[in-house]
Amino acid sequence: MSTEAQRAPVPPRPTTPPTPPPTQDLAAASAGAPVPERPDTPPPAAPAPPVETTARLRPVPPAPAAAAPAVSPPPTTPPPAPPRPEQPPAATRRRPVGAVDLTPRPGAAPPPAGRAHVPYRQPQPQPYRAPHPETPAETTTRLRPIRTRHPARTATAAVCVVLGLGLIGGAATGAWLTSDSSADAAAHSAYTVGRSAWHSVPVDTLFPRTLKGDGAGPGGADRIWTRIAVAPDGGCRAALDPLLARTLGPVGCERLLRATYTDATTSSVTTVGVIFTEGDAAAMKALSTRFTGQHLGRRTDLMPRTHPVKGTAAAGFGDRQRASWTVHVLTEVPVVVFAVSGFADGRTVTDPQPADRAMAANATTAAAQAGLGHEAKGIADRIERGLRRTVTDLTEKPE
């Protein structure tokens, strides 16, 4: 208990204990009648003021309210009231809660002289101080504050979206172009393989010993041709007429291979040749368009030369014995295939015909009647098919 609490004024004590009501009042209360107030009854003592102490005291109960007017009980007779306990003496009564008795106890020394009584001062209220901020419970992760969206960031996001769409479109376009470029690469590979086929492909593959021509003869008759000679590989100048060599000049001449075949009756002979050019795909297409558009394959001054072989059925097969011919410019590979046919007995032909005209139904020349147009066309087609198949196999062969 603090000093201020000890120095607080003590409320006055009642000098006379309250006098119990007389007997008639008790009898009247028992009968249920209102009890009159006694004029000599002192008023109830006022509650003691609260005392400010530093120690935490029990709260003071509120003062009893004024007695309310009695209400008449029901007509039933209540039980007699128990006797009222006597008031304890003043020396043993408890003081009100919060009251402090500062009177000196009996036998205590008197206070020193000259010491003035210090009155009780009400403590001044202290200014409010904010409590220390509490430490957050979760301190393991430090979250990053969310910033407000800036217009520049929005513009940047839009640019990124546009660039992403552009990349996707570019990838799709690249895939489409890649497919085209893969086709161009395959064509380039076919040209590379086809140009070198003259020394990498066996001669029996280029010029088989026996060729079967099912339905290749006049009226759909079958034909069988047998190889009787193969010419050494060489250039085009000695094997071609000068005019034909100049016509093939734009694509060049890498190598020329020739072989001579005869039919099963050895009544006709045919020389077939394969010219490996130096031109690319564009040059070969241009040359093919020229031959088709200008009908160069039908001109007698562009007729290929023969390859006679001594001691065989083609021993007398020379330039004057040429009866029918065909020239075809390929565009899948850099190759020109030609074939020229004649009679095996060495007779001279004065009216040669190109193969397409000699194969016509109304053709009446000797070459057409002997089927020499079918001989030249049939052998040239089979050599061309075999060469294409070989180049395709070499191109698609895994390395």
Q: Biggest sheet, in brief?
A: 7 strands, mixed
Helix and strand sequence: HHHHHEEHEEHEEEHHH
| Total number of helices | 10
State the end-to-end CA separation: 107 Å
The mean pLDDT is 76
Which bin fits the share of residues in helices?
A: 25-40%
Biased composition (Pro residues): 9-23, 41-50, 71-88, 122-134
Transmembrane segments: 154-177
Region (Disordered): 1-141
Keywords: Membrane, Transmembrane, Transmembrane helix
Describe the structure.
Residues 9-23, 41-50, 71-88, 122-134 have a biased composition (Pro residues). Keywords: Membrane, Transmembrane, Transmembrane helix. The chain crosses the membrane at residues 154-177. With 399 residues, the protein is α+β, with helices and mostly antiparallel strands. It contains 10 helices and 7 strands. It has helices at residues 3-6, 23-31, 151-195, 197-200, 203-206, 242-247, 281-294, 355-358, 366-369, 372-396, and strands spanning 210-213, 223-234, 255-263, 268-276, 324-329, 335-343, 353-354. Strands 1-2-3-4-6-5-7 form a 7-stranded mixed beta sheet. Helix 3 packs across helix 10 (372-396). The radius of gyration is 68 Å and the shape is rod-shaped. Mean pLDDT is 76; it is low at 1-6, 20-41, 66-71 and 179-183.
